[in-house]
Structure formats: C-alpha cells, structure tokens
Design a protein that fits this description.
This protein has eight helices and ten strands. By secondary structure, it is of the alpha+beta class. It has two domains: 150 residues, MutM-like, N-terminal (N-terminal domain of MutM-like DNA repair proteins); 124 residues, Helicase, Ruva Protein, domain 3 (Orthogonal Bundle), CATH 1.10.8.50. It has a four-stranded antiparallel β-sheet, with helices on one face. A four-stranded antiparallel β-sheet has the order 2-3-4-8, sandwiched between helices. The chain has a two-stranded antiparallel ribbon with strand order 9-10.
Length: 335
C-alpha cells in the first residue's frame, strides 16, 4: 500500500506538470472503485483549472479553480468582445515547497479532488496518445495529456468536493498531525497513555497521519524499540527517540522516491528506491545490518512486523547490578 513517502513523491512529480492545466474531459471504467466516482461530478470538474496539489496523510488533494467570466464592457465604450484576465496559478517552483508541518491550509468555497491509492493504485500523467493500460479506472483529460488512475485491486478512490475547506475540516477530524515537527509533549502523551503496542500506535492514523506498515517497522528499528512493546512502558526519552526516528525514516524514504514492492511508481512512472535500504521490513531470517542476528517476523496489530530480537528487545537488557538486586530480593523472600 502506498504510504506517505510514495504519496509525497507522486505529488512532487505531478505538481509542476499539472499546475495551471484545465480539465477538458473525464472518462471512467464500468468497474467501480472502493468509493465510486459519480458521473454527476463530470460536469463539475470539466473546465476547472488545477490550482495546486497537496498531501494529507496518505491522501492526495487537488485544488481546483475556475477562470472568472469576461468583465462586462463599460457603457458606451463599443461593442467588441474583450477577454477576461485569467486567475493566477501556482508556478512550477511549488514542487520545491517544504513538507507540511501541521494540518495544512485550504480555500473556502473552492472545489477539490481527493484521491487515495488504496493498495495498488498508480496516479500518473502521460501523453494523451499513449495506449491505455489494463485496470485503468478514471482518466482526466488535460488537452494533450491525461491524468490516469490505474488500480488493479480497486481499493483506491477519487472524489469531488465542492468546498475544500469543509473537506479539510472533515479530514482533520479523522486524522492526526503530520509526522514532521510533531509536538514532543503531544507524542509522549498519546504513546505513554495507552496499553496498545507500538505497531498499533503507529498505524493509527488518528495519532499520526501517513505512517503505514513498512515505515512503522523501519522507524521502530531506527529507534531500537520492539514493535510489540506497550506504549505505557516507554520512558519519555524513548518516546522522543521514536518520534525522531519516524521523521528521519520518512524523510529518507522521500529522498529515495518511496519504496516499490510490487506496483508502486511515482507520478512520472519511475519506481522508488527505498526498498534497497530496508533494515528489517520484508527481511525475515536475513541478518540484522547492525548485529547480524536473524530478523524475526511476528504479527502485531494484525500486521506482519519485522524486527531484530537483539537490537529491539521486548524488555530492556538487565545489567549485572540489576540481576544482583533481583537475586537479593528473592533470597530475602525465601528467608
């Protein structure tokens, strides 16, 4: 399933290509996606210009706008038609915009598209003359190019919303903060305030948005924390270590264009490269890159979880002095 780094890569690929383009048509297949595209939405988006692309968690948000109608001629100034000026559009330099640190900003009264890639979705822009692949479900025509949503397993979706601010309010109620520059106190509180294991905590999108199975495993390894440890057992400094590991792992994955396991490609059609840097994910029985112990795989929160049993102990290693104190207590109880 595409996670935050893959979605961010797609947006960065598409943003300079799509900004300012006008949607001239919409085509859809007969096979429905998880959230079906409604035919009534076609007339709502045709003629709209793409103002910009954003990300919220694992969702792609495409902000739309409409050119204003031509201004009326002043009375008595002739009868020739004049062209109205177009609204300003985001420049291609927006592709270099920083990662969202909080909950984003929206624009009231303007529409937006929301896209989710499900497990096997691909969202790419190609020439309008390029042959259509199989499993193609929605096509947005952009004059000489097409924005195509392909999804073999059909768990993805594309939806139209008339008010992007209302959409963002809804998403903010469902999703936690972005995993960049998280407030340390907030993170300590939500992690240490639950008896759930770390894997379940990281996969909960209401706590932190965007982290999935791959990067939860990799972040836990970077932080040297067992994914099965209960949140309430973590010390504040361990929470800080995990928070920093999440951000570092995701940042590095974005730099590598995400991870291609099976179907994922970026918006330009290029594959990711972070799969070549996995420390634990999908490396069962292979040696740990730090201590050479065989990587283990256990299910936590219903998901396969990969970890090093030596570097990520379920309980802290007992020192010699700790063992001596424990032995002394047992002798006292026996006597």
């Amino acid at each position: 399933m595409p996670e935050l780094p893959e979605v961010e890569t797609i947006i960065r690929d598409l943003r300079p290509v799509l900004a300012g383009r006008t949607i001239t048509g919409v085509r859809q297949s007969k096979r429905k996606l998880r959230r079906p595209w409604k035919p009534a939405w076609n007339e709502q988006v045709i003629g709209a210009s793409i103002e910009g692309l954003r990300r919220r968690g694992k969702w792609i948000l495409i902000d739309l706008t409409f050119d204003p109608p031509p201004s009326p001629l002043p009375t008595g100034r002739g009868s020739k038609d004049t062209e109205g000026s177009k609204t300003s559009l985001l420049s291609a330099s927006a592709s270099d915009s920083p990662l969202p640190a909080g909950r984003g900003v929206g624009g009231g009264g303007l529409p937006a598209l929301r896209v989710h890639l499900g497990m096997t979705g691909q969202f790419t822009v190609v020439s309008a003359t390029e042959p259509e692949p199989d499993h193609l479900h929605i096509v947005f025509s952009l004059e000489d190019k097409e924005l195509r949503l392909r999804d073999q397993r059909r768990f993805g979706s594309a939806e139209y919303f008339a008010d992007r601010t209302a959409l963002e309010d809804t998403m903010n109620a469902e999703l936690g903060p972005e995993p960049f520059n998280i407030d340390p106190e907030y993170f300590r509180e939500v992690v240490r305030g639950t008896s759930r294991n770390l894997k379940a905590i990281l996969l909960d999108q209401k706590i932190v948005a965007g982290v999935g199975n791959i990067y939860a495993d990799e972040a836990c390894f970077r932080a040297k924390l067992h994914p099965g440890r209960k949140g309430k057992t973590l010390k504040p400094e361990e929470c800080d270590r995990l928070r920093e590991a999440i951000e570092a792992t995701l940042t590095r994955a974005i730099e590598s264009r995400g991870s291609t396991i099976r179907d994922y490609v970026g918006g330009s059609g290029l594959r990711g490269g972070f799969q070549n840097e996995f420390a634990v994910y999908s490396r069962t029985d292979e040696p740990c890159p730090e201590c050479s112990t065989a990587i283990k795989c256990t299910r936590f929160a219903g998901r396969a979880s990969h970890y090093c049993p030596e570097c990520q102990r379920i309980s802290p290693r007992r020192t010699q002095s700790t063992r001596r104190k424990s032995t002394t207590k047992r002798h006292r109880r026996a006597s």
